[in-house]
Amino acid sequence: MGRSKRDKKPDLAERPDFAAETVPLTAEEVQLFDPLKTNFIWYKPPLATEDSHETGGHQWCVAGHDMQVLTMTVPAGETIITEVGSFMYMHPGMETQVECTLCKMNTCGEAWKRVCGGESCVKVLLINESDEQGYVGLTPNFPAKVIPIKFGTHIESGRNMITKGGAYMAELGDVDVGCSLDCSIATCCCAGLGCCRQKLSGSDGSIAFLNAGGTIVYKHLKEGETVTVDTGSLVGFEDSVHMGIRFNGSFCTCCFGGEGCFSTTLTGPGRVYMQSMSFQRFQAAVMQTITEEERGGDSNTGMDIATEILGP
Protein backbone atom coordinates (compact mmCIF):
# COMPACT_ATOMS: atom_id res chain seq x y z
CA MET A 1 0.00 0.00 0.00
CA GLY A 2 1.37 3.43 -0.96
CA ARG A 3 2.13 6.08 1.60
CA SER A 4 -0.44 8.81 2.13
CA LYS A 5 0.38 12.44 1.52
CA ARG A 6 0.28 12.95 5.26
CA ASP A 7 3.07 10.39 5.80
CA LYS A 8 5.17 11.48 2.86
CA LYS A 9 8.42 13.22 3.81
CA PRO A 10 9.15 16.51 2.05
CA ASP A 11 11.66 16.20 -0.76
CA LEU A 12 14.72 18.47 -0.50
CA ALA A 13 14.71 18.95 -4.25
CA GLU A 14 11.17 20.33 -4.09
CA ARG A 15 12.15 23.15 -1.74
CA PRO A 16 13.90 26.35 -2.76
CA ASP A 17 16.95 27.50 -0.82
CA PHE A 18 16.14 29.26 2.45
CA ALA A 19 16.80 32.73 1.08
CA ALA A 20 14.16 32.35 -1.63
CA GLU A 21 11.42 31.32 0.77
CA THR A 22 8.50 33.55 1.59
CA VAL A 23 6.85 31.15 4.07
CA PRO A 24 8.29 29.47 7.19
CA LEU A 25 9.37 25.84 7.06
CA THR A 26 6.77 23.34 8.21
CA ALA A 27 7.38 21.15 11.28
CA GLU A 28 8.12 18.17 9.00
CA GLU A 29 10.64 20.16 6.99
CA VAL A 30 12.35 21.46 10.13
CA GLN A 31 12.70 17.85 11.28
CA LEU A 32 14.24 16.94 7.92
CA PHE A 33 16.60 19.92 7.77
CA ASP A 34 17.44 19.86 11.50
CA PRO A 35 17.13 16.30 12.87
CA LEU A 36 19.20 17.10 15.99
CA LYS A 37 16.97 20.08 16.86
CA THR A 38 19.80 22.62 17.15
CA ASN A 39 17.70 25.19 15.25
CA PHE A 40 20.64 25.70 12.89
CA ILE A 41 18.93 25.20 9.53
CA TRP A 42 20.99 23.99 6.58
CA TYR A 43 21.17 26.21 3.51
CA LYS A 44 20.36 23.90 0.60
CA PRO A 45 22.31 25.10 -2.45
CA PRO A 46 20.02 25.43 -5.48
CA LEU A 47 20.65 23.33 -8.54
CA ALA A 48 21.11 24.62 -12.08
CA THR A 49 17.40 24.56 -12.87
CA GLU A 50 14.98 26.91 -14.57
CA ASP A 51 13.67 28.12 -11.19
CA SER A 52 13.99 31.89 -11.00
CA HIS A 53 12.83 34.79 -8.88
CA GLU A 54 11.86 38.35 -9.71
CA THR A 55 12.84 41.51 -7.87
CA GLY A 56 12.09 45.02 -9.10
CA GLY A 57 11.71 43.95 -12.74
CA HIS A 58 14.89 41.84 -12.68
CA GLN A 59 14.70 38.07 -12.88
CA TRP A 60 17.51 36.21 -11.18
CA CYS A 61 18.62 32.68 -10.35
CA VAL A 62 21.56 31.04 -8.59
CA ALA A 63 23.14 28.01 -10.28
CA GLY A 64 25.69 25.49 -9.11
CA HIS A 65 26.75 23.93 -5.83
CA ASP A 66 29.94 25.15 -4.14
CA MET A 67 31.20 27.78 -6.59
CA GLN A 68 27.94 29.33 -7.68
CA VAL A 69 26.92 31.72 -10.43
CA LEU A 70 24.30 34.45 -10.06
CA THR A 71 22.52 35.33 -13.32
CA MET A 72 20.24 38.37 -13.58
CA THR A 73 18.21 39.91 -16.37
CA VAL A 74 18.68 43.65 -16.87
CA PRO A 75 15.84 45.62 -18.52
CA ALA A 76 16.76 48.36 -21.01
CA GLY A 77 18.23 51.40 -19.28
CA GLU A 78 18.68 49.61 -15.93
CA THR A 79 21.91 49.23 -13.93
CA ILE A 80 23.33 46.45 -11.76
CA ILE A 81 25.74 47.43 -8.97
CA THR A 82 28.39 44.85 -8.06
CA GLU A 83 31.59 44.60 -6.09
CA VAL A 84 34.99 44.62 -7.81
CA GLY A 85 35.99 41.21 -9.19
CA SER A 86 32.54 39.59 -9.33
CA PHE A 87 31.87 40.00 -13.09
CA MET A 88 31.73 36.80 -15.17
CA TYR A 89 29.76 37.44 -18.40
CA MET A 90 27.14 39.77 -19.86
CA HIS A 91 24.92 40.59 -22.85
CA PRO A 92 26.71 42.43 -25.71
CA GLY A 93 24.41 45.42 -25.19
CA MET A 94 25.71 45.90 -21.65
CA GLU A 95 28.41 48.41 -20.75
CA THR A 96 30.74 48.47 -17.75
CA GLN A 97 31.55 51.61 -15.78
CA VAL A 98 33.29 52.16 -12.47
CA GLU A 99 32.35 54.77 -9.90
CA CYS A 100 34.99 55.84 -7.40
CA THR A 101 32.88 57.16 -4.54
CA LEU A 102 35.96 58.71 -2.94
CA CYS A 103 36.49 61.04 -5.92
CA LYS A 104 33.13 62.83 -5.69
CA MET A 105 32.15 65.34 -3.04
CA ASN A 106 28.57 64.06 -2.79
CA THR A 107 29.68 60.43 -2.32
CA CYS A 108 32.79 60.97 -0.19
CA GLY A 109 30.90 60.07 2.99
CA GLU A 110 29.59 56.90 1.36
CA ALA A 111 33.14 56.00 0.32
CA TRP A 112 34.49 56.20 3.85
CA LYS A 113 31.60 54.11 5.17
CA ARG A 114 32.31 51.45 2.54
CA VAL A 115 36.04 51.41 3.28
CA CYS A 116 35.53 51.28 7.05
CA GLY A 117 33.10 48.42 6.54
CA GLY A 118 35.68 46.38 4.64
CA GLU A 119 34.64 47.03 1.03
CA SER A 120 36.27 48.94 -1.81
CA CYS A 121 35.45 52.60 -2.43
CA VAL A 122 34.97 51.60 -6.10
CA LYS A 123 31.61 50.32 -7.35
CA VAL A 124 31.23 48.46 -10.66
CA LEU A 125 28.16 49.51 -12.67
CA LEU A 126 26.83 47.14 -15.34
CA ILE A 127 24.52 49.26 -17.49
CA ASN A 128 22.13 48.08 -20.18
CA GLU A 129 22.40 50.80 -22.83
CA SER A 130 20.57 48.80 -25.50
CA ASP A 131 16.85 48.78 -26.32
CA GLU A 132 16.38 45.13 -25.37
CA GLN A 133 16.60 43.12 -22.20
CA GLY A 134 20.13 42.10 -21.27
CA TYR A 135 21.69 39.78 -18.74
CA VAL A 136 24.75 39.54 -16.51
CA GLY A 137 26.51 36.65 -14.79
CA LEU A 138 28.26 37.26 -11.48
CA THR A 139 30.32 35.00 -9.26
CA PRO A 140 32.20 35.37 -5.95
CA ASN A 141 35.91 36.09 -6.30
CA PHE A 142 36.78 33.07 -4.14
CA PRO A 143 35.26 29.55 -3.87
CA ALA A 144 31.89 30.42 -2.34
CA LYS A 145 28.12 30.19 -2.45
CA VAL A 146 25.81 33.09 -3.25
CA ILE A 147 23.34 33.98 -0.48
CA PRO A 148 20.41 36.24 -1.43
CA ILE A 149 19.20 38.21 1.61
CA LYS A 150 15.85 39.94 1.11
CA PHE A 151 15.04 42.90 3.33
CA GLY A 152 11.63 42.58 4.90
CA THR A 153 11.77 38.78 4.61
CA HIS A 154 15.11 37.42 5.81
CA ILE A 155 15.88 40.70 7.57
CA GLU A 156 12.86 42.04 9.42
CA SER A 157 11.47 45.44 8.42
CA GLY A 158 13.32 48.25 10.13
CA ARG A 159 16.40 46.14 10.86
CA ASN A 160 19.83 46.18 9.23
CA MET A 161 22.36 43.41 8.75
CA ILE A 162 25.86 43.36 10.23
CA THR A 163 28.14 41.33 7.95
CA LYS A 164 31.73 40.29 7.80
CA GLY A 165 33.91 42.56 5.68
CA GLY A 166 34.01 41.30 2.08
CA ALA A 167 30.72 39.39 2.32
CA TYR A 168 28.83 41.81 0.04
CA MET A 169 28.82 40.92 -3.67
CA ALA A 170 25.92 42.64 -5.47
CA GLU A 171 22.48 44.13 -4.95
CA LEU A 172 19.04 44.60 -6.45
CA GLY A 173 16.95 47.54 -5.35
CA ASP A 174 17.85 50.09 -2.70
CA VAL A 175 20.75 48.66 -0.65
CA ASP A 176 23.27 50.81 1.23
CA VAL A 177 26.71 49.43 2.11
CA GLY A 178 28.05 51.24 5.15
CA CYS A 179 29.55 50.64 8.55
CA SER A 180 28.45 50.39 12.15
CA LEU A 181 30.63 51.56 15.05
CA ASP A 182 31.01 49.19 17.99
CA CYS A 183 31.51 51.30 21.11
CA SER A 184 32.35 48.36 23.38
CA ILE A 185 36.09 48.10 24.05
CA ALA A 186 35.74 44.41 24.91
CA THR A 187 34.08 43.37 21.65
CA CYS A 188 36.19 45.76 19.57
CA CYS A 189 39.39 44.13 20.79
CA CYS A 190 38.32 40.53 21.35
CA ALA A 191 35.24 39.67 19.24
CA GLY A 192 37.08 39.64 15.92
CA LEU A 193 35.09 42.19 13.89
CA GLY A 194 36.91 45.32 15.06
CA CYS A 195 35.35 48.65 15.92
CA CYS A 196 33.98 49.29 12.40
CA ARG A 197 31.63 46.56 11.24
CA GLN A 198 30.07 46.35 7.79
CA LYS A 199 26.37 47.24 7.82
CA LEU A 200 23.88 46.57 5.04
CA SER A 201 20.59 48.43 5.05
CA GLY A 202 17.82 48.49 2.49
CA SER A 203 14.17 49.05 1.80
CA ASP A 204 11.72 46.14 1.98
CA GLY A 205 11.93 44.00 -1.13
CA SER A 206 15.55 44.91 -1.91
CA ILE A 207 18.08 42.08 -2.05
CA ALA A 208 21.73 42.00 -1.03
CA PHE A 209 23.70 39.10 -2.50
CA LEU A 210 26.40 37.86 -0.15
CA ASN A 211 29.16 35.31 -0.69
CA ALA A 212 30.18 32.67 1.85
CA GLY A 213 32.16 29.44 1.70
CA GLY A 214 31.51 25.83 2.61
CA THR A 215 28.19 24.78 4.10
CA ILE A 216 25.87 27.62 5.11
CA VAL A 217 23.54 27.43 8.11
CA TYR A 218 21.32 29.98 9.79
CA LYS A 219 19.58 30.25 13.15
CA HIS A 220 16.73 32.47 14.31
CA LEU A 221 17.58 33.40 17.89
CA LYS A 222 14.69 34.02 20.26
CA GLU A 223 14.58 36.89 22.73
CA GLY A 224 17.40 36.33 25.23
CA GLU A 225 18.67 33.16 23.52
CA THR A 226 22.48 33.02 23.31
CA VAL A 227 24.81 31.00 21.10
CA THR A 228 28.63 30.87 21.19
CA VAL A 229 30.26 31.00 17.76
CA ASP A 230 33.62 31.23 16.03
CA THR A 231 33.86 34.77 14.67
CA GLY A 232 35.63 33.53 11.54
CA SER A 233 32.59 31.41 10.71
CA LEU A 234 30.16 34.33 10.84
CA VAL A 235 28.61 35.65 7.65
CA GLY A 236 26.28 38.16 9.26
CA PHE A 237 23.47 38.80 11.71
CA GLU A 238 20.60 41.21 12.22
CA ASP A 239 21.52 44.36 14.13
CA SER A 240 18.97 43.40 16.80
CA VAL A 241 21.41 40.66 17.88
CA HIS A 242 23.78 41.65 20.69
CA MET A 243 27.43 40.62 20.30
CA GLY A 244 29.53 39.79 23.34
CA ILE A 245 32.62 37.76 24.28
CA ARG A 246 33.28 34.72 26.42
CA PHE A 247 36.59 33.67 27.98
CA ASN A 248 37.63 30.26 26.70
CA GLY A 249 39.00 28.94 29.99
CA SER A 250 42.38 27.80 31.19
CA PHE A 251 45.80 28.86 29.95
CA CYS A 252 46.26 25.57 28.10
CA THR A 253 42.89 25.91 26.38
CA CYS A 254 43.66 29.46 25.24
CA CYS A 255 47.14 28.57 23.95
CA PHE A 256 46.58 25.14 22.43
CA GLY A 257 42.85 24.87 21.78
CA GLY A 258 43.05 26.74 18.48
CA GLU A 259 40.28 29.20 19.38
CA GLY A 260 42.32 31.88 21.16
CA CYS A 261 41.45 33.46 24.49
CA PHE A 262 37.91 34.53 23.63
CA SER A 263 34.91 33.25 21.70
CA THR A 264 32.05 35.39 20.40
CA THR A 265 28.56 35.21 21.89
CA LEU A 266 25.41 36.30 20.06
CA THR A 267 22.19 37.00 21.95
CA GLY A 268 18.79 37.33 20.26
CA PRO A 269 16.36 38.26 19.02
CA GLY A 270 17.37 37.99 15.38
CA ARG A 271 18.82 35.81 12.64
CA VAL A 272 22.42 34.64 12.42
CA TYR A 273 24.05 33.30 9.22
CA MET A 274 27.22 31.18 9.37
CA GLN A 275 29.68 29.47 7.01
CA SER A 276 31.85 26.39 7.51
CA MET A 277 34.76 27.51 5.30
CA SER A 278 35.54 31.22 5.30
CA PHE A 279 38.04 32.59 2.79
CA GLN A 280 40.56 33.18 5.59
CA ARG A 281 40.26 29.57 6.77
CA PHE A 282 40.56 28.27 3.21
CA GLN A 283 43.59 30.49 2.60
CA ALA A 284 45.24 29.30 5.82
CA ALA A 285 44.66 25.65 4.85
CA VAL A 286 46.22 26.21 1.41
CA MET A 287 49.22 28.05 2.85
CA GLN A 288 49.80 25.35 5.47
CA THR A 289 49.70 22.66 2.80
CA ILE A 290 52.07 24.63 0.56
CA THR A 291 54.52 25.04 3.44
CA GLU A 292 54.39 21.33 4.27
CA GLU A 293 54.87 20.36 0.62
CA GLU A 294 57.83 22.75 0.23
CA ARG A 295 59.50 21.25 3.28
CA GLY A 296 58.96 17.80 1.85
CA GLY A 297 60.33 18.79 -1.54
CA ASP A 298 57.11 18.08 -3.42
CA SER A 299 56.56 20.12 -6.58
CA ASN A 300 52.76 20.33 -6.36
CA THR A 301 51.36 23.63 -7.54
CA GLY A 302 48.89 25.79 -5.64
CA MET A 303 46.16 24.61 -8.00
CA ASP A 304 46.93 20.96 -7.19
CA ILE A 305 46.76 21.72 -3.48
CA ALA A 306 43.48 23.62 -3.78
CA THR A 307 42.05 20.68 -5.72
CA GLU A 308 43.07 18.32 -2.93
CA ILE A 309 41.27 20.48 -0.36
CA LEU A 310 38.10 21.24 -2.35
CA GLY A 311 37.91 18.01 -4.31
CA PRO A 312 37.86 17.58 -8.12
TrEMBL record:
Species for this entry: Pseudo-nitzschia multistriata
Identification of the protein by name: Uncharacterized protein
Cited Pfam families: AIM24
SUPFAM superfamilies: TRAP-like
Source lineage: Eukaryota, Sar, Stramenopiles, Ochrophyta, Bacillariophyta
Signal peptide feature range: none
